[in-house]
Each structure stands twice: as C-alpha cells, then as structure tokens.
C-alpha cells in the first residue's frame, strides 16, 4: 500500500507537465481520482499507483515539436520489510529498479 500523502502535488504536476487529458486518462485507468483524495489520510494499492504512472507515461507528448513516448522502470521498496530509514529504503528501491530493468523495460519490481 502507498500512503496517499506521498502523492501530494502529483495530480497538479501531471496536469501542468502533460495536460488535463493525460490526468483524466490516468485517473480513469487507475479507477481512482487522485485529485480527490490527495489530502486524505489513507492508503492505495501499489498496483493502482503503477497503473496511474503507466498511463501518464504512455501518452505521447510533444517535446520541441517532436512527438515522443516515455517509459519507466520502477523499483519499489516497502517499509518496514525493506528498511525503516530513508537510506535503506532508497538502497532497496534501487536494487528493485535494477531487477525491473533486467526483466524488461517499462515494468516494475519489488525489492528482492
């Protein structure tokens, strides 16, 4: 589960960087309006967050007049299982990121 407070500002960033349409598509794909809950004290499943991010990145974007599509590999570390302090969590998320990249591009992996 992901604490929603960790997503504070994400919808505004997506709206500004990628546009309202991309934000709507991401919310629809994740079946969740992150705008509506970003100030709530609750948790959402990792799968919803990864679906949201996949949808944001899947939309083609115009960069310097060229249409580009971006992908991402994501590494996920969970507290307290993978560490309790920021350094341990970042280290383990980095290990998960390498695992994700080795599994193929544009995917996610949990800490091994």
Give a nutshell description of this structure.
This protein is an alpha+beta fold and 112 residues long. The protein is 49% helix and 14% strand.
Write up what this structure looks like.
The chain has 112 residues and is α+β, with helices and mostly antiparallel strands. The chain folds into two domains: 1-69, no CATH class; 73-112, no CATH class. It is 49% helix and 14% strand. It is built from five helices and six strands. The strands form three sheets. It has a two-stranded antiparallel ribbon with strand order 1-2. A two-stranded antiparallel sheet has the order 3-4. A two-stranded parallel ribbon has the order 5-6. Helix 1 (10-18) crosses helix 2 and helix 2 (20-30) packs antiparallel against helix 4. The chain starts with a strand and ends with a strand. The relative contact order is 0.14.
Q: What is the percentage of strand-forming residues?
A: 5-15%
Distance between the termini: 17 Å
**Number of helices, counting only DSSP H or I runs of 4 residues or more:** 5
Give the SSE order as H and E letters.
EHHHEHEEEHE
Shape: globular
Structural class: alpha+beta
| Total strand segments | 6
Number of domains: 2
Helix content: 40-55%
Strand order of the largest sheet: 1-2
Strand count, sense and barrel status of the largest sheet are:
2 strands, antiparallel
Mean pLDDT: 81
């Amino acid at each position: 589960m992901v604490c929603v407070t960790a997503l504070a500002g994400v919808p505004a960033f997506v709206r500004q960087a990628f546009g309202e349409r991309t934000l709507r598509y991401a919310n629809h794909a994740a079946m969740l309006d992150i705008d509506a809950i970003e100030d709530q004290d609750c948790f959402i499943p990792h799968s919803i967050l990864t679906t949201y991010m996949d949808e944001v990145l899947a939309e083609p974007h115009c960069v310097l007049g060229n249409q580009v599509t971006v992908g991402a590999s994501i590494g996920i570390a969970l507290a307290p299982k993978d560490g309790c302090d920021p350094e341990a969590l970042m280290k383990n998320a980095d290990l998960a990121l390498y695992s994700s990249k080795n599994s193929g591009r544009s995917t996610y992996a949990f800490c091994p």
